[in-house]
Every structure is written in structure tokens, then in C-alpha cells.
Amino acid sequence: MIDRGLLYKEWKQDQSLFITIFCLLFLITPASIIDQYNDYQNILHNFSDRAHFVIDYTPTGSVSFTWRIGIAIILAVYQLGVERSRGWLDFTLSLPYTRGQVFNTKFFLGVIVLIASQLLSYLLSELLFIILKPESVLFFQHYMMGSLVVSFMAYALVMAAGAMTGHIFAQLLTAFSVTIMPFLLIVLPFLNLRIIFERDTFWHQFPLLDNTLLQFCIPIVYINTGAWLSESMYILLIPAIMSILFYLIGYFCFIKHSIERTGSFFLWKQLDRPVQILVIIFGILGFGFIGYDADDSLIGYGVGMIIGAVVGFLLSYFLIYKKTKY
User: Membrane-spanning residues where (predicted)?
Assistant: First the structure.
């Protein structure tokens, strides 16, 4: 449940940030449309026979889409990671509100800023299409819906990571690890089994690895707009469901974990050892595959696994067990 007094406090505390993010998300797509129109006018002036005003959102690597994801991540980091490091979160939790109210208010305010700004951006863009009259507009509705859903997923993921971790770097690293977790849990072990059991025959026995739905369960895939724009719009139900799951995880962690371990990688110390073991395992499997790929022999595979074990242990030890001071 959201308290209006707490909502007002959160808004006034970060008002300039919310307004800046709102304006950026509201203007970024209309600005890109106007920029494309200006390019069209320049071509029309110099090469009239080659001028075609077509707005196509299918090419990969859209800068405006990357900006949307980055802005959603910055907002989530600021609301939990930065506020925790500056002691503002401790002050908020000392107020007469439950932990659930604090998390839901922050989450609600962040989501409203993300969604409202992008919906208004969509309406303004449609108005520009009426005024500028492009010859055709390809995949615009699909692109805008995907931008809204994927930015929401990124925000929910980083908020969940912030509810589990004690400092900003841990929040970002945990969020990034989750974006590639299906690959680490499914594909990486199969790559190693492929080496052990004759790679030419083993891979084809597991068609699941080439399954489209499995690929779209890897959150980092959605950064590449070309990967999902060519698919049905219903594919966006997957990141929508993942967003709800991340919210629930973040809510549970926020109300259950203490804040006394601020500066530690995980606020819940029971996660330290299992995550360290996972990092070592992933290090062994990852470096083992790299060693085999470089040397094309089991000797290179074994050397890579040894290096991966050492790197995984050292990395996990210094990241997880060394407390960050503020």
C-alpha cells in the first residue's frame, strides 16, 4: 500500500531527477523523428531523386532505445543504491512507515515516471507523423511498446538487485549477472558437455538450446531491438512477466533483509557462500571452454579450468567478503 505523505516526501526529495528523466524520455523519440526529417530535407535538397522519408525501427542498435534502458537503470540505482550510500534510506526507514510501504512508494513513483513519459512521447510522435507525413512508418507501435516493457523490466531488475545488495557496484553487478543467468545456467554447461561428448553429435541432441522462447528468457537479449522487433508483439509478454517476478523478488528482499550489512555485497549473509560457489563453477566452465577453443585440446581445456577456478575464487572472495566503506 502506498502512503500519500511518503509519496510526497519521495517526490520532493528527488524532484529534479524525476523531472529530468521525464523530460528525457518524453523528448527522445520525437527528437529522433525530427532529426530523421531534417536528414530527409537535406537529401531532398541535394539529391531529390533519392529522397525517401521512411521511418524504420527494425535496424539493430537503436541509440534512443539504449538511452531508455540506461535511464531506467540510473533511476533504480539512484533510488536504492545512491540513497543507501548517502544514508537517506536509513532516514526513510526510520519514519513511521513499513518497509513494504517504502519499497512500493519508490517503485510506484519510478514506474509512473517511466510509463507516463513514454506514453506521452508516443502520442507526440504520432502527432509528428501526421504533420510531417512520412511515406511509411515501420514497426513504430511495436518499438514503443517494447521500449516501455523492456525499460520497465530493467528498472524492476535493478530495483530487485538493490534490495538484495549493500552498495551500488554490487547492485549493478548482480543485475547484470541476472541478465545473462539463463545462459550461464543452461548454455554454458552444455558447451562444456559438448566438448566432453564429441561436440559434432552432442549439440543436436538438445534442440531446446535453439528454442526461441529460451532465447527470449535471457533479459540481455532485449537490448538488441532487432532480436524482438521481427517477432510477434506477444513475445513482449515474457519481459512483462519477468518484470513482475523481479518486483516480487525485490519487495520480498526489501521487507525481509536487514540494512545493518550496508557496504557488504549481499545484505543477507546466507547468500555469500552459495554465490561464491556459483562464481567458481562458472569460472571453471567459462575458462575451460575458452581454453579448449584456444588450444583445441583437452590439455587447454584442463588448464583453462584451473585458471577459471583460481580467478573465480579470487574474484568472488574480494567482491563478496570485502566490505565497502563509505
Answer: 16-34, 54-78, 107-131, 143-162, 168-191, 235-254, 275-292, 298-320
Single-letter amino acid, residue 20: T
Q: For the segment 288-302, what is each residue's pLDDT rounded down to a tens digit? A: 888 887 777 778 888
- 248 sits in which H/E element: helix 237-256
Reported as type and span, the H/E element at residue 138 is strand 136-138
Helix (H) or strand (E) holding 164: helix 140-164
- Answer for the pair 178, 253: CB distance below 8 angstroms, yes or no: no
Q: In the Cβ-directed half-sphere of 278, how many Cα atoms lie within 13 Å?
A: 12
CB atoms within 10 A of CB 309: 16
Separation CA 60–CA 125 (nearest Å) = 20
**For residue 164, what is its C-alpha cell?**
538484495
Q: In which band, very low, low, confident or very high, does the pLDDT at 120 lie, cut at 50, 70 and 90? A: very high
Kindly state the helix (H) or strand (E) to which residue 105 belongs, with its residue range: helix 99-132
Q: Which of 214, 239, 215 is nearest to 227 (CA)?
A: 215
**CB-based burial, 14-28: b 16+ in 10 Å, e otherwise:** beeebeebbebbbeb
